[in-house]
Write a structure and sequence with these properties.
CATH class of the largest domain: Alpha Beta
Strand order of the largest sheet: 3-2-1-4-5-6-7
Order of helices and strands: EHEHEHEHEHEEHEHEEEEEE
CATH superfamily of the largest domain: Formyl transferase, N-terminal domain
Strand content: 15-25%
CATH architecture of the largest domain: 3-Layer(aba) Sandwich
CATH topology of the largest domain: Rossmann fold
Number of domains: 2
Shape: elongated
Radius of gyration: 21 Å
Number of strands: 14
Structural class: alpha/beta
Helix content: 25-40%
Number of helices: 7
Largest sheet: 7 strands, mixed
Length: 300
């Protein structure tokens, strides 16, 4: 059976690495990796798998498909930001399998890992589902979950989720090769919930948050899409939180003190929170989060 992998990012790389232990794609399609060598490209080339880099499949990928991968029976998607068009969905004979790091139908949409970390989740649900025109709504063909440790940031959570999803997808491809039919369990639309819009950067208001909750926000959203802090320059982003000592009587929540050239201490409601400053960049739109997401986040 010929299949193709379409993915990028930390989760996509971990998923492909797990897949390559049992099955080999006819081609790997990925995005250019900013600022360095893509781990996805490195993995594929080490196994002799053809690699194609592209920004998006576009409206009519069937016209480009001969140069991208040729005829394929199935496709596996790991963290691809583009919504596939109907013509793209129709290219593989058996369609596409999407690797989604949540227990669908909960947390549909972009960045389910970050928003689940924000809620303090100790486990990430994992879903392999068949792709349909509606986002993350196709029949479910496999499920699993991975445990998270207290200090895990989004990169570590994405690595764990990607590795487990890749292993799960390998099992699904084996089933497809032998049975030639996947089927799947329809999702419960009444139970569906959604992540906030893609690219949302969080504005941290430490006067309204305890240090533990603020640390959870920083771990969930750094380095991307980013965490800004009220009282710091609007284009500054922070990462690597560490909860410190309790505030003394002379300190008010919302204060901040430099620790060194790259770190600053933020006074939350109960304790200091030390964070590392990232290099400023173009300021994206931010959404205020005070306290963290009590009314915006879906259940599940």
């Amino acid at each position: 059976m010929r299949w193709v992998f379409l993915g990028q990012g930390v989760l996509g790389a971990a998923a492909l690495e797990a897949l390559l232990t049992t099955v080999t794609p006819a081609a790997v399609l990925t995005m250019p990796w900013p600022g360095g060598v893509s781990p996805i490209i490195t993995l594929a080339r080490a196994r002799g798998v053809p690699v194609r880099t592209l920004e998006r499949l576009g409206e009519e990928p069937d016209r480009r498909w001969p140069e991208l991968a040729g005829p394929v029976d199935a496709g596996v998607v790991g963290c691809w930001p583009e919504r596939l068009t109907d013509s793209a969905l129709a290219v593989p004979r058996h369609g596409w399998l999407n690797l989604h790091p949540s227990a669908l139908p909960a947390w549909r949409g972009a960045d389910p890992v970050g928003w689940q970390l924000l809620t303090g989740a100790r486990r990430l649900g994992l879903t392999v589902h068949r792709m349909v025109a509606r986002q993350d709504a196709g029949p479910i063909v496999a499920r699993d979950a991975v445990a998270l440790d207290e200090g895990d940031d989004r990169a570590e959570a994405e690595r764990r989720a990607g590795a487990a999803l890749g292993a799960l997808a390998g099992q699904v491809l084996a089933r497809l090769a032998s049975d030639d039919e996947l089927g799947g369990e329809p999702q419960d639309e009444d139970a569906a919930s959604w992540c906030p819009p893609v690219g949302t950067a969080v504005l941290l208001e430490t006067r309204a948050m305890r240090a533990g909750a603020a640390a959870r926000v920083v771990r969930a959203f750094s380095p991307q899409p980013g965490v800004a802090v009220a009282g710091l320059p609007t284009d500054q982003r922070v990462c690597e939180p560490a909860v410190g000592e309790r505030l003394d009587a002379g300190t008010s929540p919302g204060e901040h003190r430099p620790l060194d050239a790259r770190r600053v201490a933020l006074a939350c409601q109960d304790r200091w929170l030390a964070v590392r400053l990232l290099t400023p960049g173009p300021p994206p739109a931010v959404t205020e989060l005070t306290p963290p997401g009590a009314t915006r986040l879906p259940r599940g």
